[in-house]
Amino acid sequence: MIDALVHTKRLAAIGVEAAAAEAAGHGAVWVSETGNDPFLHSYAAADATSTAEIGTAIAVAFARSPMTVAQTAWQLADVSGGRFRLGLGSQVKAHIERRFSMPWGRPVGQMRDFLDALSAIWESWRSGQRLHHEGPYYRHTLMAPFWVPEAHDHPIPVWLAGVGPAMLALAGERCDGVLLHPFATRAYDETVVLPALQKGLAASGRTLDDFGVSRPVFMVMGDTEAELAERRRDACRQIAFYASTRAYQPVLDAIGYGALQPELADLAARGQWDAMADLVDGEVLDHFAVVGRPEDMPDRARRHLAPFVTRTASYFGWPVADPERLGEIVGRFRR
To answer: What is the pTM of this model?
Structure first.
C-alpha cells in the first residue's frame, strides 16, 4: 500500500493536499506533528476526503493526557466514518520536559500505561461501565454520563511509532500497527525490527498477518540531473539531522556507521548543518534512500524495503505536478 505523508504546517492547506492525495490513489493520508496540531489537521484531511484512511504520524502521546487523546480520537473516528487511525509516539526526554513541560518516565512503561488508559476510557464509553484505571503513570477514575461522548461503533486502530526493540515489541503486543521511522535501513529492519515485532505479536497470540507495518522512504526524485542533485542534498541534510540524535545510534550501528553519530551530534551542537550533510553523501545515503525518476520509485522502493513492510510513503512527497502522471505512479505501487 502506498500512503501520503503531509508535512505542511498550514491548516488551510491540508484539505487540498489530502484531497489530491486521495485522487491520486493513496490508501491513507498521514499528518505529522511539526509545528501544528495533528488532530486539527486530521479533521481537515477527513473533511476533504471520502475513502482514504486518515492518521497521525505521529501525535506525541506524552505531551497529552490519555483522556484528551481518547476524546479527540473518538470524535475523529466518528466524523471520518471509521477512517481515522491514531498514530502515537513517545518523542524524547528533552522535548517532553523542556518543550511540553510534561513528565518523562521510562518511555516503554509509560507508553504501555498510556495505551491501557486509552483502552479503559474507550471501554467505559462503549459499555457504560465505571471508569477505573490506576496505573503507574496515569489515573482515570471519574466519568459522569454528562461527559461521555456520543456513541458510535467505529473502531479506533492504534499505531505506535518505535525504533528500539522494547517499544517495537510493545507495538506488536498491544497495537494494530507500527509506524517505523524513515531513518532506518533494511539491515536494521531485518535484524532488529522484525524479531522485536514477532516477540510482541507472539505475546498477544498474533502474527504479522494480523498487523500493519508502515515505513516511509526517503525517495529522492527528479527528471533532470540538476533536480536530482538538489534533492540528494536535501535528503543528506535530513538524514544527517536524524543521525545526529543519540537514540538512533543503533540504526547506524547496523550498517557499520556507528562512529558517525557523535561526529554529527558535535556538528549539530555547533549549528554546522551543511557540514553535517557532507558526511552523509554516497554510500551512507544509499542505505537510507532510493534515487531516480518518479517512475522508478515503485520498483526501487520494493527492493529497498524488507518484505514484511505493508505500507510505505514518499517522505518528501512527490515532485510531480501532473495528476495523471502521479496517478499512474501510485497505481504501480498498488499493483
So the answer is: 0.94
